[in-house]
Amino acid sequence: MYLTKEVKSEIFAKHGKSAQDTGSPEGQIALFTYRINHLTQHLKKNHKDYNTERSLVKLVGKRKALLDYLKKTEIERYRNIIAELGIRK
């Protein structure tokens, strides 16, 4: 499933403050997680697609940086987003 405008606004509405709130860390983490899951499925079928693999690694790094920021600044928001998305243990 492609990332359409409707899917994006749905992700931001669910995890951000509103559908237009694209800057909140929670919304960005949720969007990155959606894209990471999509790329992971793609790479299971196309294991020699190295450009996509590189993009996946970059996305994981961006998500990790946002999670580290959230963990450092507001631990409760960090715990909530981790639980909602099921990212870590």
UniProtKB/TrEMBL annotation:
This is Small ribosomal subunit protein uS15. One of its GO terms (cellular component) is cytosolic small ribosomal subunit. The keyword RNA-binding applies. PANTHER family: RIBOSOMAL PROTEIN S15, BACTERIAL AND ORGANELLAR, SMALL RIBOSOMAL SUBUNIT PROTEIN US15M. It comes from Weeksella virosa (strain ATCC 43766 / DSM 16922 / JCM 21250 / CCUG 30538 / CDC 9751 / IAM 14551 / NBRC 16016 / NCTC 11634 / CL345/78). It holds the Pfam family Ribosomal_S15. GO terms for biological process: translation. Belongs to the universal ribosomal protein uS15 family. Keywords: Ribonucleoprotein, Ribosomal protein, RNA-binding, rRNA-binding. Coiled coil: none annotated. One of the primary rRNA binding proteins, it binds directly to 16S rRNA where it helps nucleate assembly of the platform of the 30S subunit by binding and bridging several RNA helices of the 16S rRNA. One of its GO terms (molecular function) is rRNA binding. PROSITE patterns: RIBOSOMAL_S15. InterPro entries: Ribosomal_uS15, Ribosomal_uS15_bac-type, uS15_NS1_RNA-bd_sf. Part of the 30S ribosomal subunit. Forms a bridge to the 50S subunit in the 70S ribosome, contacting the 23S rRNA. The keyword Lipoprotein does not apply.
